[in-house]
Each structure stands twice: as C-alpha cells, then as structure tokens.
C-alpha cells in the first residue's frame, strides 16, 4: 500500500507478507519443517527472530493446521491478514444487523470478497463494487452477493438507488475517492463506515481531491472509523478459525490470482494495484 | 445551515430558533407570561401546539429559571441548542481526556467558543481556529484558549505543528473543507473527530472538492462521527444546567452579536455565514 510503502527508503526491502518454511532454527518456539507467515517482504530467504517488528506487527506466526484440501497460501489471504481484516473490520466497526444493506468497494479483492460473504452470512443485503464484469459475475454467481456495480462503466448513483432502495446501513470502504463521497450520500441515519484503505489514490502523485463528505456525515449522523487489523492481534486466531469453519461449511469461497516466479513479482504487484487480480494476489516462488 | 435550509421551498418560513413570550394559551402546560424557546423560524408571532415538529425537534421548551444576571437570549446560545451541541458533541463524541490536545474550527462561534472552554475545563490543551485577529484575541485573552490560528492569514500546517507538537487527539469540526483534510494529517493514533457542520461550503453552489481523507483516517485509525444535538433530547437539561453552573463559577464565558430589528434579520444571517459574528448571532425584535 502507498500508505505504508511511501515511507520506504530506496534500497530497503519492499513490503509483502510471505509463507515460508523454516530451514533452520535456534529458537525453541520454531522447528525446522514448520511453516510460518510473516511480513518478510520481497525476498527468497529470511533470518527472523520471530519477535515483533518495530512497527508492532508480529515477526512470524506458525501457521495453524489447515484441513488437507486448503493450500498454505491461504495464510496470506482468507486465512490470514486479509481474511481477518474483513472479519474484524466488518463485524467490529460496521456491526451489520440482519436485514441491513451493506456495500463494499474493492469487492473482488482479498478483503472485499470476504467482507461481502460474511455480510451474507450475517443476513445482510450485499452490494459489491468492482471494476470488471467478470469480477461482478464471480461476486454474484459464485459468492452470493445480491448485486454488483461496475464503477468503470455503470452510473453509480443510479445503480445505488436501484439496488439499495431503502438506503445503505454499512459501508466497507477499500478505495476512498469520489465513489466514497457518492456512497455516503445514500446512507441511512446512524450508518457505519469501516475505512480500510484508499487504493483509488495509491497511484496518484498527489492525494486526489474529492467532494467533501461533511454534509452526509452530519445530516445522517454517520460514524466513520479507520482501522488497521493489527488492533485485534490478541484475537487473531478467532478470525482465522471462524473463517476456516465457514470455508468448510461452504459459506465462504475464495479465489487466488497466482503468479509464478520471483522475477514476476513487480508485475504481479502493479497488476494488483491496477485491479488485475481477483481475490488475493499470490506470487509462488 | 445550508444542510437544512437547502430543503426549504420558496414561500416557506425561514429556519431559526426564537425566544418568545406566551401571550395566550389553551394548553395547560403553558401559561401566558412564560418564556419558551423553539424552532419558530423568522416570524414575529407564532401559533404552536408545543408538540414535537415533524422533524422530531421539540415544538417549544419552557425556558428554565435563569439567574437574574443572565439574559433570556442565552436560551438561543450557550444555554440552549448551541451550548448543548458543544457540551454533548465534545464530551460524548470526542471524549477528551486531561492532557490531550483539542482543536476546534469555527472557534469564535456560538458552538466553538463553548467547545474550547469545556475542553479547558476538562484539562485539554486547546487550539481555536477562526478568521480574524480580533476573534483570536477574544479566544486566548478572555476565554482561555491556549492558541489561536487565523485560517485566513496563517500558514495552517506550520501553526498546527507549532501549537500541537505532540499531535491532536480531538477535533471538533464546524467547518469541513480543506482545513479538515489538513488537520486530520496531524492527528494522533485513535484520534476522535466530532463533525458538527460544514459551514465552509454553505455558500458554494456546488459542494467543494477537498483532499481525500482516507489516508490519515486509516493510518491513525481515526474515528469520525457526525451528529445532530437532538440525539440527546432526553438529556437536554443536563447540558443546560451544567453550562449554567460553569457560567456561574466563571469557567464559561459568552458573547452575543446582537442585531436590532426584524428588518435587519437577513443581513444578520448573511453576516453570520460570512463569519461577521463572535459568539451567538442574535436578532432582537
């Protein structure tokens, strides 16, 4: 993310989560052969103490036992940080109730696709916003979203009125930007907004200017809260276990966009920022 | 406010609170000679049932007994809706703690001037933003604000860094607009923003575009909540009584900008929108 990545100095390792097998260990908490997940960055081999990083992120988690049919790479997606981002962000900040309407932007991404499905599990009417008809088809036909809005081709305001005739109660915001200003104008009294990211501006040189949001925020007494999932580190495995249970019950589905080879990492990353991925973007070494 | 006023149809009575003396009453709850405050609009005489208005606002409150040295017009300001807006909005949404830094925009207005003083009562370091040196002098010299920023002439970012070297914890936002985007970039982790209004855009034909706020909201996990003071109708007299007590203890000061004569109402209103008032803008009939 630009938000974190823009602070990097030239020459430092680029950010990224990784599943890694332990080759050698001098720490009794970790054994060779075990798999861990950590914020190791773009590299093939890592020396780690396993201790927390200076930014408070965990150094390395030992991946819990996954059912045999689930790939370890899910520890980077639906059974890791993105899945937990969806789980805690939606449930703790949006607090969706049965019968309410939920809208999620970046809906076909690693986080958004899980947000919408958990919304359905909780009895919400769910609208996903993404940038291609193919993604939309996946959201509605396979993941069970009620509606899809293509932000690149649809008249967004018209579609919101059509798909959310009773207004929107919960908004899980992955993108920020003008679309957020539009969505806020269709929210109900005491609506809740979980602000997870602002990807719409990550590739811009300057932070974009968008229609100011204070009118709908005041008139409808909206509550908007930004969050970073590490706030719930002490409940980390609660999210993973619940998402795993829902996968096994057939209630949560996932997709990964896998790129092969370290040399294709940069392309995979920039494709992701341009919206080329569906579900979690993975690079396999 | 544009927010409410823009919904008015031509020919309807313009919005405004009023202190009125009861001339005649067929309702046993109200007696001739009593003073009430209500959303009667711009008119000299009103027929009211005293019942709640369709928008949920109270029809008419009987003004509680004020100490003899306090004018009844305070029921329109510090001992009425604006005072309660400051009291509940700051305490319930910003939840200021001793030692924290509070910034308030529209600081010399009927709401902002009370917000800053309650912030001082609660032990905060308080910065007020307003549009003239005269207002700034009043805030700092008479009301006890720690610092003043003149948004028309100061380098706002530089002043924030100087006056809030440890960052801002609470922001009471009366104006919205670009200054809000700037302030959010200087807020601390888990900062709270009470969104009370967006006056910076009320005179614009289109809602202004401002720098998007998702980056600071996410990175610092900020919580932003819009509110209308009528949310706390059931605690209405708690706010009035506490503010009255603080006035009597010398901890809360007020100023009114009084215009004489119904025929000068429009000018008083537009002067207020342009920032001509200090404290509550009152028209005396």
Automatic annotation (TrEMBL), chains A, B:
Protein name: Prostaglandin reductase 1
Pfam families: ADH_N_2 (PF16884), ADH_zinc_N (PF00107)
SMART domains: PKS_ER
Family indicated by similarity: Belongs to the NADP-dependent oxidoreductase L4BD family.
Subunit description: Monomer or homodimer.
Gene Ontology terms for molecular function: 15-oxoprostaglandin 13-reductase [NAD(P)+] activity; 2-alkenal reductase [NAD(P)H] activity
Source organism, top-level taxon: Eukaryota
Main location (coarse class): cytoplasm
EC number: 1.3.1.48, 1.3.1.74
Protein location: Cytoplasm
Catalyses which reaction(s): an n-alkanal + NADP(+) = an alk-2-enal + NADPH + H(+); nonan-2-one + NADP(+) = (3E)-nonen-2-one + NADPH + H(+); 13,14-dihydro-15-oxo-prostaglandin E1 + NADP(+) = 15-oxoprostaglandin E1 + NADPH + H(+); leukotriene B4 + NADP(+) = 12-oxo-leukotriene B4 + NADPH + H(+)
InterPro entries: ADH-like_C (IPR013149), ADH_N_2 (IPR041694), ER (IPR020843), GroES-like_sf (IPR011032), MDR_fam (IPR045010), NAD(P)-bd_dom_sf (IPR036291), PTGR1 (IPR014190)
PANTHER family: PROSTAGLANDIN REDUCTASE, PROSTAGLANDIN REDUCTASE 1
Gene3D superfamilies registered for this protein in UniProt: Medium-chain alcohol dehydrogenases, catalytic domain, NAD(P)-binding Rossmann-like Domain
UniProt record, GO biological process: prostaglandin metabolic process
CDD domains: leukotriene_B4_DH_like
GO cellular component: cytoplasm
Keywords of this entry: Acetylation, Cytoplasm, Fatty acid metabolism, Hydroxylation, Lipid metabolism, NADP, Oxidoreductase, Phosphoprotein, Prostaglandin metabolism
Domain Enoyl reductase (ER) residue range list: 11-283
């Amino acid at each position: 993310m630009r938000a974190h990545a823009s602070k990097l100095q030239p020459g430092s390792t680029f950010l990224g989560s990784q599943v890694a097998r332990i080759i050698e260990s001098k720490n009794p908490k970790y054994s060779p052969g075990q798999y861990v997940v950590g914020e190791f960055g773009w590299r093939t081999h890592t020396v780690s103490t396993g201790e927390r990083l200076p930014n408070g992120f965990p150094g390395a988690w030992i991946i819990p036992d996954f059912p045999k049919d689930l790939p370890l790479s899910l520890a980077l997606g639906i059974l890791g940080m993105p899945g937990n981002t969806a789980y805690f962000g939606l449930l703790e900040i949006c607090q969706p109730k049965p019968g309410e309407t939920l809208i999620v932007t970046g809906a076909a991404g690693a986080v958004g696709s899980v947000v919408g499905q958990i919304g359905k599990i909780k009895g919400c009417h769910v609208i996903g916003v993404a940038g291609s008809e193919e993604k939309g088809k996946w959201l509605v036909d396979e993941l069970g979203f009620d509606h899809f809005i293509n932000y690149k081709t649809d008249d967004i305001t018209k579609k919101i009125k059509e798909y959310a005739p009773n207004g929107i109660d919960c908004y899980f915001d992955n993108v920020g930007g003008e679309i957020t200003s539009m969505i806020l104008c269709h929210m109900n009294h005491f609506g809740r907004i979980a602000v997870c990211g602002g990807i719409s501006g990550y590739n811009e040189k300057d932070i974009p200017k968008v229609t100011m949001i204070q009118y709908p925020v005041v008139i409808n007494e909206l509550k908007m809260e930004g969050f970073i999932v590490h706030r719930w580190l002490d409940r980390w495995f609660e999210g993973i276990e619940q998402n795993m249970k829902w996968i096994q019950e057939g209630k949560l589905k996932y997709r990964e966009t896998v790129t092969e080879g370290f040399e294709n990492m940069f392309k995979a990353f920039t494709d992701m920022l341009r919206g080329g991925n569906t579900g979690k973007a993975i690079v396999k070494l």
